[in-house]
Amino acid sequence: MQRQLFGKTGLRIPPVVFGSTSLGNLFAEVPDEAKQQVVAEWFRRVEAPVFIDSAGKYGAGMSLEIIGRELARLNIDPADVVISNKLAWTRQPLVGDEPTFEPGAWFGLTHDARQEISYEGILRCYHQGNELLGDYQAGLVSVHDPDEYLAAAVDPADRKQRWHDIEEAYRALGELRSDGKVLGVGVGAKDWTSIRHVCDRVDLDWVMLANSLTIMKHPPELLAFIEQLDEAGVGILNAAVFNAGFALGGKFYDYRVVTGESAEDRELLDWRQRFQTACQRFDVAPAAACLEFARSVPGIQAVAISSSSPHNIARTVAAVDGAAPPSFWSHLKEMHVIDPSFPFLG
Ligand SMILES: NC(=O)C1=CN([C@@H]2O[C@H](COP(=O)(O)OP(=O)(O)OC[C@H]3O[C@@H](n4cnc5c(N)ncnc54)[C@H](O)[C@@H]3O)[C@@H](O)[C@H]2O)C=CC1
Ligand SMILES: Cc1ncc2c(c1O)C(=O)OC2
């Protein structure tokens, strides 16, 4: 498993990094036992230092808390782990029965979360994250989902204010970097055009794309942006490369349920059918195809995968080093399962 230099962070990272939404009960309450096994599997399947992606939002701090607890239980040396914490939400006491943020997404939470994007707010996210991590610390930090923060603007003046908040948050993160507290500053978002906007205004070391460059979706404009990032020496993590599980048969596509009722949904289901048929014909595991595709564009150093079950981690990690035959990729292009003009693979 070949490690690569990660943007301007100075870190050498493995081709697979571990996402941790499931430790925060995204879409389902995962038993604590399974979470313990998931963290242990990370260290069994990838040579240290292992790279973990988390966020204060994941389970309103639950994901960070469990990471800290399990690393300590496994006696992991802090030098053997890199934790990337996406900042924007702080843990708050739970008032009432249900958390108020992202209803329907998180299950079995003990806390609520509040969005805090500003100079002071982002520092609160950072410090609280390190408290939740206990003996460990975030070595990388980013602003989480600036796309959603901007999309919530009610008018142009509000949007301008929100950009100001984001820039102030980055001013604070830049200080953490120049003080030597963190190794790099980045961004994590599902709308890659918002990442491009941030890159135009802020000096980033790395970015995390989510739901954006996948076997299902790979617009040429994004490929051009990735090339630009690569030339500028900005690191790239590719996340949610199964489009939140949809490509593998899950019911969520980019974190919304596909019911099959709209024309768009029918197209998605039709795509999946054609993808699965091709995988069967060439005897390629769908997850392996998604992972190879997600790493095929130069400039991407790693994919972020998350798992609610400890059982598929070994398989997923093994798949990252595998390669499907070129004939499989040309077939996907011929069948328009992937864009025939995609310049890599096959
Ligand atoms: N805004 C941001 O910055 C975002 C960051 N992320 C990061 O990326 C990570 C991965 O995203 P996910 O939400 O997990 O989306 P994903 O596209 O990786 O899909 C995950 C789903 O696929 C399943 N799965 C994983 N490996 C499998 C296998 N080998 N066989 C069958 N099923 C398998 C998982 O159990 C889960 O249901 C997150 O944990 C997070 O760290 C994800 C989304 C947004
Ligand atoms: C809004 C939202 N939905 C799902 C996910 C994230 C997110 O920010 C994330 O970072 O990982 C999965």
UniProtKB/TrEMBL annotation:
PANTHER family: GH17980P-RELATED. It comes from Rosistilla carotiformis. One of its GO terms (molecular function) is pyridoxal 4-dehydrogenase activity. It comes from the Bacteria. It is an enzyme of class 1 (oxidoreductase). GO terms for cellular component: cytosol. InterPro entries: AKR, NAD(P)_OxRdtase_dom_sf, NADP_OxRdtase_dom. The keyword Ubl conjugation does not apply. This is Pyridoxal 4-dehydrogenase. Pfam families: Aldo_ket_red (PF00248). Residues 16-334 form the NADP-dependent oxidoreductase domain. Its EC number is 1.1.1.107. Gene3D superfamilies: NADP-dependent oxidoreductase domain. Keywords: Oxidoreductase.
